[in-house]
Amino acid sequence: MAQDLIAQARAWLAEDPDAETRDELARIIEAGDTAELGARFAGTLQFGTAGLRGELGAGPMRMNRVVVVRAAAGLAAYLKAQGHAGGLVVIGYDARHKSADFARDTAAVMTGAGLRAALLPRPLPTPVLAFAIRHLGAVAGVEVTASHNPPRDNGYKVYLGDGSQIVPPADAGIAAEIEAVGSIHHLPRPESGWETLGDEVLEAYLERTDAVLSPHSPRTARVVHTALHGVGKDVVLAAWERAGFPAPVLVDEQAEPDPDFPTVAFPNPEEPGAMDLAFAKAREVGPDLVVANDPDADRCAVAVPDDTADGGWRMLRGDEVGALLGAHLVHKGVSAKDANSTFATSIVSSSLLGRIAAAAGLGYEETLTGFKWISRAEGLRYGYEEALGYCVDPDGVRDKDGITAALLVAELASELKAQGRTLTDLLDDLAVAHGLHATDQLSVRVEDLDVIAEAMRRLREKPPAALAGLRVVSAEDLSKGTESLPPTDGLRYHLEGEYDARVIVRPSGTEPKLKCYLEVVVPVGGPSELSAARARAAEVLAAVKRDLAEAAGI
């Protein structure tokens, strides 16, 4: 076994074009660390609907140049088999370790395969790449990013010509072509021949950002912005200047790209501590909002002043921002008469958007998790997901876009400010109109993926009869699919009793986590009942979380 591992590692060394990972692997071989070799050569990173994502390092179970070259070659073969020989592939990348190398390798492979390749001019937000695909008429796009994952990770996200991320069966088709690549020695990889784009694509994207705002809306909201060491800052500043908002106050320590993300444990605004510096800046300058983008700026987090919160600021949940933006678009005049008037969200997000859409006479669709599904809702006008993702301009960017979403939130805050009101006031209005839709999440990060598999097995074999005293009236195994959803590894429970509630349980598609999404709907008779309703909702959610953890054995 040890000799087999060493032989595999030496074969890998022979084709690895990266001196850094060659040296790393050579040290492991020399040390005779068969446990580490076993981890790196236990299989290959699987290409799926999230593309590739994993820890940087040598070996087929890590993200590195060999894995990326094979992925690019498989994608090129798939595109040619689909009749796109000679088509344009646009490639973007963030500022993580190796991102620029992976992007250039992709351009070289595409060029060598007879496709045309165009690189974005520098590290830019993922939404710019998603926009460029449609804007340039490309047959596909690649974004090298691991989004909000830890610094040790990188990833490879693939879009097809409609500007949406891949879904089955395209993912399986690409994976099969990658599997057929074999050694990369025979792949033509010229050192030139692709195009490096100028700023014209970014300028065209910025022109689209103007379109999400009403022509004469107020632009007075003052914002503190953090890029969380990612690539969002310059594009946010440019968009804000074009729109005429006051220039954002930057969290200087996090404003510039830094692949080590030195001020945060995880570069994700949802993670504890990630927003501490932004809140400190907010206490210093007193803005109307705090806005954070994740490192590739496709997500947007929003915080509001709150005297009851620790530190005086409260992060809004993604579901709250999703509802606010939906209500704002209705107020701006989205109508069922429009060619595209469907609101969409995923099954793990709050059902409140459905109530807002129904009250406005708009179409509504629930999809599987991820914008690869949300973006494909028929007649999409607006889509969001609880994990801080919002698509407010699907004709321009058919994916989540943290920059246009932030602009729309700032517009809404400005309009409310002119009325002497706040985003919190509008959330209260929505609760009175549609019921208080309170959400929470039970998220368990694991070292051993078998823990997740065991929890899913337990719940499938013995689903709970009740949670928090609410009867489970339906327990759906989503792996079998439903009338409206294709199969996915997940479970959905609907609960009834004193209140209606819903629970979704699923393994994360991008991180080693088991994620459980909880919602309870508490009727509200008027503003005076809001405080009691929120307290009761918190009690019910805490009880659901406790009972679900016990049922899952986590």
UniProtKB/TrEMBL annotation:
Location of the Alpha-D-phosphohexomutase C-terminal domain: 473-520
GO BP terms, alphabetized: carbohydrate metabolic process; purine ribonucleoside salvage
Keyword list, A-Z: Isomerase, Magnesium, Metal-binding, Phosphoprotein
Cofactor: Mg(2+)
Chain ranges of the Alpha-D-phosphohexomutase alpha/beta/alpha domain: 46-180, 204-303, 318-430
Transmembrane segments: none
Database matches in InterPro entries: A-D-PHexomutase_a/b/a-I, A-D-PHexomutase_a/b/a-I/II/III, A-D-PHexomutase_a/b/a-II, A-D-PHexomutase_a/b/a-III, A-D-PHexomutase_C, A-D-PHexomutase_C_sf, A-D-PHexomutase_CS
CDD domains in the record: PGM2 (cd05799)
Gene3D superfamilies: Alpha-D-Glucose-1,6-Bisphosphate, subunit A, domain 3, Alpha-D-phosphohexomutase, C-terminal domain
Keyword Magnesium included in the entry's annotation: yes
SUPFAM superfamilies for the chain: Phosphoglucomutase, C-terminal domain, Phosphoglucomutase, first 3 domains
Magnesium recorded as keyword: yes
Molecular function in Gene Ontology: magnesium ion binding; phosphopentomutase activity
One Pfam family in the UniProt entry: PGM_PMM_II
Similarity comment: Belongs to the phosphohexose mutase family.
Protein name: Phosphomannomutase
Native species: Streptomyces wuyuanensis
